[in-house]
Amino acid sequence: MNTPLWQTLQAALQQSGSRIVLDDGTHRYQADELLAAVDAAASALAAYRVVALAADNGCDWVIADLAALQAGVTLVPLPLFFSPAQQAHVLASSKAELLLQPIPGAPLFPGCRTLGATVLQPDATGHSDSAKITFTSGTTGAPKGVCLSQTLLLATTRALLDASGGASLRSHLAVLPLSTLLENVAGVYRALLAGACCHVPPLAQVGLSGSSGFDVARLCRALDTYTPASLILVPQLLGELVAAAQAGWQVPASLRFVAVGGARVAPRLVEHARALGLPVYEGYGLSECGSVVCLNTPEQDRPGSVGRVLPHVSVEVVNDELVITLPDASGYLGDPASFSTCVKSGDRVRIDADGFVHVNGRSKHLLITAFGRNVSPEWVESELLAQGVIRQCVVLGEALPALVALVFAPGADDQHVQQALDHASLSLPDYARVAHFIRLETPLLPGSPLMTDNGRPRRALIAEHYAAALAALTLPRTGVQA
Fold first, then answer.
1. Which end of the chain has the lower number of beta carbons within 10 A, N or C?
2. Where is each AMP-dependent synthetase/ligase domain found (predicted)?
């Protein structure tokens, strides 16, 4: 396997010398120390072809990842929030020969201070030649593996480095799981290529616990402790930070670039964040594209859009769908025919006269109400979130006479929530107005059973989960018959 990404990162680390480039709150690595640890781990990985990695955020996760790049081994990041059945599916379908994970009492893997190794399939066949297989959790129980090359990952990393401020961003704090491609590429690889320090504390230290627990106070403390220049957030976490800032938390002056993506972001949330000192820039990407495709930047910014297309890819709009051309092919594990440099996004978009991309929602997410009206739930959700009262919402309405919203609105009583719905209705046609709401006691968090790891709602599962609550509602017939 060619290793252009590793060779580029290695050169950047060699230039960094004795500078601290990796820190998880317990261990810190100068660039030369990191290179030595990666070299030791890469030598141990050289006997394998496909290696799985199941660990919390930390220096050892990054060392194992870089070692796989150096050794030309296919790495399979195993999200800890996957169910046991999903994890078993990932290991079996990827034909992983080795599993790296914390094993109390077991010998440590070379180069790592917390990870042990379990041999899984010493005679595995049919391995992938890809650098990384990232598994995305969709609406079904079996995650799908996306195969990515070092060439594609390097092109994405370089484009992100240039777009986000280059070497001026001297530190980054990983808030999302490192098994999330967005954090892996736009966070770790971008920071190391820039010669910046990448802070990768355990997820509990930044407020994430289990599949649905989140403590915004811990995230605020982590930001105060590490004072990073950059962050990557999903909309739910951005909303929590905005609420914390409104309640008196002081945004660190060190922050220069906060990328937010994974799901549609209400323009008003971006405005509120910036007014409070959070330099937020919305982007857009797909795992099949190696992560980010479009991004707003301080120099090229249009709130309400997902930014301009990054220079390593090209796009066209075909029947309102964004089609992306990549610098190297990607595809799905076990499906050779799927490998292509052309990716159909499934997203309905428009590109304005200045080249900014506006996403209007997923084609497959269109709701068809009982009155035969097509409604994009992302459109309605954006209008609801723009009111500033509701922090998270998911709109349901397939085959229903009227729309229903699941809402998370801490600090607001039902009357204030209803007022927000009524105000949003002023800018919506009657068939797209929300007739009823169901309160969420806690937010739906990335990686939880009802959300993807990038923060997108699993709409089919959500509708199934709340079927009884929906059936109990007496919905007004507010739709307009065809």
1. C
2. 11-328
